[in-house]
Design a protein that fits this description.
This protein is an alpha/beta fold and 329 residues long. The protein has two domains: 184 residues, Bacterial extracellular solute-binding protein, family 7 (D-Maltodextrin-Binding Protein, domain 2, 3-Layer(aba) Sandwich), CATH 3.40.190.170; 133 residues, Bacterial extracellular solute-binding protein, family 7 (D-Maltodextrin-Binding Protein, domain 2, 3-Layer(aba) Sandwich), CATH 3.40.190.170. The chain is 45% helix and 18% strand. The strands form three sheets. It has a five-stranded mixed sheet, sandwiched between helices. Strands 8-5-9-11 form a four-stranded mixed sheet. A two-stranded parallel ribbon has the order 6-7. Helix 2 runs antiparallel to helix 11 and helix 7 crosses helix 12. The radius of gyration is 20 Å and the shape is globular. About 2% of the residues have low confidence. The structure holds alpha-D-glucopyranuronic acid. Alpha-D-glucopyranuronic acid binds next to strand 3.
Length: 329
């Protein structure tokens, strides 16, 4: 959507449902925007969050979900939350890097040992600290959503070793950590927003990208990229955010309802996620995509260099990474 159209849309959407203000009816409606299509499990989880909130509050608090970048890209949504004209969003943790250097460590390749380690970190003390680390920027993290593991998909040949990245333009999220990672592995990183990626792949502006299976499937990028090599280089979670403007406007009880509804939606989303991964892999394969499971060793060999580069630029992140690595329960 063009910027002007989007501003007009946000304005009219604001009239229908305020960032988080009370309508004449005494009902508060919180606008929640995100970048995924409605068939994606994160959208369904957000709708569930709204239903739980409505139930808990006896209909006094509602969430209206705007999918598909209708209110803006992830970066724009974050800015709209900061000024309180959109109340809530769900973004990739990578989109929050500019607001919290601590959160950027979640984009380090092969940071987690396995799925149990991911939930020990994200559901524990470190996760709580990370969720609140953007508060000074008027953004409050409510919970994490599972965004699985990211792997490479490409147009002309599978990316099964770092050597296959050479000479290829790889789309990355608008994230310095992702740029460092691709560079460290030997590819040419090109930041492109999620909504523009289909066309960028189609027109050859980039040769490849990387994402989790449900996003590869729901974005229809598989129509352009026939190879999906499951190297699972990162496990960057999604974050459900509320604008501090909206949060501070809620009384203690309303804040509790919202936090509980978000936590319950995260449990529901994890369940949906597992099924969505299986479905996505099945469907893209049916459509002709060649899926491979390359050895992770050659990618792991590049990791030390990527970490060293990051710590050279941001020394303070080393201690946090060590804490994450030492987390065992
Ligand atoms: C994932 C993530 C999205 C993000 C996307 C991307 O799908 O859940 O929030 O927009 O990756 O690669 O940009």
């Amino acid at each position: 959507m063009q910027l002007v159209q989007r501003i007009v849309f946000v304005f009219f959407a604001s009239v229908l449902a305020l960032g988080g203000c009370q309508l004449n009816t005494g009902v508060k409606v919180i606008k929640m925007g995100h970048a995924q299509v409605v068939s994606h499990p994160v959208h369904q989880a957000m709708v569930f969050l709204g239903e739980r909130l409505e139930e808990k509050s006896g209909g006094k608090l509602k969430v209206k979900v705007y999918p598909n970048q209708q209110l803006g890209t992830e970066r724009e949504l974050i800015e709209l939350l900061q000024i309180g004209s959109v109340g809530m969003t769900k973004v990739s943790a990578a989109s929050l890097e500019a607001f919290s250097p601590e959160i950027s460590v979640l984009g380090l390749p092969y940071l987690f040992r396995d799925d149990a380690h991911i939930s020990q970190v994200l559901q524990g003390e470190i996760g709580k600290e990370l969720l609140l680390s953007t508060e000074k920027f008027w953004l409050r993290g409510l919970c994490f959503y599972d965004a699985g593991k990211r792997s490479f998909y490409s147009k002309t040949k599978p990316i099964e070793t770092p050597a296959d990245l050479e000479g290829l333009k790889i789309r990355v999220q608008e994230s310095k950590m992702a740029i460092n990672m691709i560079r460290g592995m030997g590819g040419s990183p090109t930041p492109v927003s999620y909504g523009e990626l289909y066309t960028a792949l189609q027109q050859g502006i980039v040769d490849a990208a990387e994402n989790n299976p449900p996003s590869f499937y729901n974005s229809r990028h598989y129509e352009v990229c026939g190879y999906y090599a499951i190297d699972e280089h990162t496990a960057i979670p999604d974050v459900v955010l509320v604008s501090s403007e909206v949060w501070n406007d809620l009384n203690k009880e309303e804040q509790r309802w919202l936090q509980e509804a978000a936590d319950e939606s995260a449990v529901y989303q994890t369940k949906l996620w597992k099924e969505a991964v299986e479905e996505a892999l099945r469907e893209v394969q049916k459509a002709g995509v060649k899926i491979s499971y390359p050895s992770k060793e050659p990618f792991l060999e590049k990791v030390a260099g990527v970490y060293a580069q990051v710590f050279q630029e941001q020394k303070q992140l080393e201690a946090l990474v060590q804490r994450i690595q030492q987390t065992t329960k």
